Amino acid sequence: DHGGGADAGREDAERKAREFDMDMRYGPCLGLTRAQRWQRAAALGLAPPPHALCSDDQPCIWEGRV
């Protein structure tokens, strides 16, 4: 094994994070990191996906694009 499993795990986590970014049920994401958006959604009782997919410093996929 040459780290393929680890790469696949990171790709899956990033795919899930992008899905979180695109899910408008959790409110807008511009100007917030993924973790900040997750915390806001949780505080509002919106049951966001597991927090492990959002590191503290990751911007949403739209940051810098719009």
UniProtKB/TrEMBL annotation:
PANTHER family: DNA POLYMERASE DELTA SUBUNIT 4, OS08G0163300 PROTEIN
Gene Ontology terms: biological process: DNA synthesis involved in DNA repair; DNA-templated DNA replication
Gene Ontology cellular component terms for the protein in this record: delta DNA polymerase complex
Pfam families associated with the record: DNA_pol_delta_4
Name assigned to this protein: DNA polymerase delta subunit 4
Domain of life: Eukaryota
The species this protein was found in: Aegilops tauschii subsp. strangulata (Goatgrass)
GO molecular function: DNA-directed DNA polymerase activity
Regions that span the bilayer: none
InterPro entries: DNA_pol_delta_4 (IPR007218)
